[in-house]
Design a protein that fits this description.
Layout: E1 3-9, E2 23-28, E3 31-35, H1 41-47, E4 54-58, H2 64-67, H3 70-79, E5 86-91, H4 95-102, E6 113-118, E7 123-126, E8 130-136, E9 144-150, H5 159-164, H6 171-177, E10 182-183, E11 189-190, E12 204-207, H7 215-219, E13 226-230, H8 238-243, H9 249-259, E14 263-267, H10 278-287, E15 295-296, E16 303-305
Parallel strand pairs: 3-4, 4-5, 5-6, 12-13, 13-14, 14-15
Antiparallel strand pairs: 1-2, 1-16, 2-3, 7-8, 8-9, 9-12, 10-11
Helix pairs in contact: 9-10
């Protein structure tokens, strides 16, 4: 089941010729989820081929570089004759502001738009096989981050062992894999734990939005496969990062280590580093506990595939 991240916008507050304001698109088994929507997001979605079929938009905070793309995106959806509802999740206390932004063009969207306020610890969205959790971040306004966390998967079915126990090939295999005991013709009962391994972990992605290093980023899920963290500044502006409620690349890597993240993507790169983010990459890799190649400063349009943790077994 594919899980793919497309970085639509990776700039800080001021866009550059190479980087658009913040937005991340996540595709999972045909479902599209959007995290933040800076100015021009709808053009980035066209440019990088994600399409507009998103069911949920998760807003980390209401600074312009994270939300000014919403009116244009909704207008584009309406021009494409969208009828499906859209849910927009936003931090507690910001619903009225976001509603004003949704209606900024003077008329309501031609399709239903539901606005849902969330805070740290809330489940913003629960799907059949995963959920999107909100967690508290440390920015200079009301803000949250989001973690997409898949449910554990079934353990591996040991067909050879099942046949040794006399289970006939067919429906009884499925019942055992679903956790049901089965009875054989001779009256023997075979239990699932005899032929099914331990549950296997799903995948997880954590997206912080803008924030200083925050404990909740570490606590929201165990060992995320991908941490997308604010890295607005390099070490040369560490004091400014603190003053403006952002993080440095080195701090992002330290958080990644504490969270046990497998991969780290550095986002929200300040325009002062336009055209060169080598210091960000080098400083993060100096402290990142995992493989150096698992740290990146993604360009706009870059895609990352998230494999299952046990995909190499």
């Amino acid at each position: 089941m594919p899980l793919r991240v497309t970085f639509l916008g990776t700039a800080g507050a001021i866009p550059t010729t190479e980087r658009n304001p913040s937005s991340v698109f996540v595709a999972r088994e045909g479902e599209g989820l959007l995290f933040d929507a800076g100015e021009g997001t709808q053009r980035q979605m066209m440019r990088f081929g994600t399409g507009f079929s998103i069911s949920h938009l998760f807003v980390t905070h209401l600074h312009g570089d994270h939300v000014l793309g919403i009116p244009g995106l909704l207008e584009t959806m309406a021009f494409n004759d969208r009828t499906e509802p859209l849910a927009i999740h936003t931090p507690h206390g910001t619903r009225r502001q976001l509603k004003s932004l949704v209606n900024a063009l003077g008329n309501r969207p031609s399709f239903p738009v539901r606005i849902n306020e969330v805070g740290g610890g809330d489940v913003a969205y629960r799907a059949d096989e995963y959920e999107v959790r909100a967690f508290a971040t440390d920015h200079d306004t009301r803000s949250v981050g989001y973690a997409l966390v898949e449910d554990d998967r079934k353990g591996r079915f040991d067909r050879e062992r099942a046949e040794e126990l006399g289970v006939p090939v067919g429906p009884k295999f499925s019942k055992l894999h679903e956790g049901e005991s089965v009875e054989l013709e001779d009256g023997t009962v075979v239990d699932p734990e005899q032929v099914v391994g331990e549950p296997r972990p799903g995948r997880s992605i954590v997206y912080t939005g803008d924030t200083r290093p925050a404990e909740a980023t570490i606590e929201v899920t165990d060992e995320p496969d991908l941490l997308i963290h604010d890295a607005t500044f390099a070490d040369d502006s560490a004091d400014r990062a603190t003053d403006t409620a952002h993080a440095t690349a080195r701090q992002a890597a330290e958080i990644a280590n504490r969270a046990g993240a497998d991969r780290l993507a550095l986002m929200h790169i300040s325009s002062r580093y336009a055209g060169y983010a080598g210091d960000h990459l080098g400083q993060a890799r100096e402290v990142f506990a995992g493989e150096a190649e698992n740290v990146c400063v993604p360009d706009d349009g870059q895609k990352l595939e998230i494999p299952y943790p046990d995909s190499e077994e």
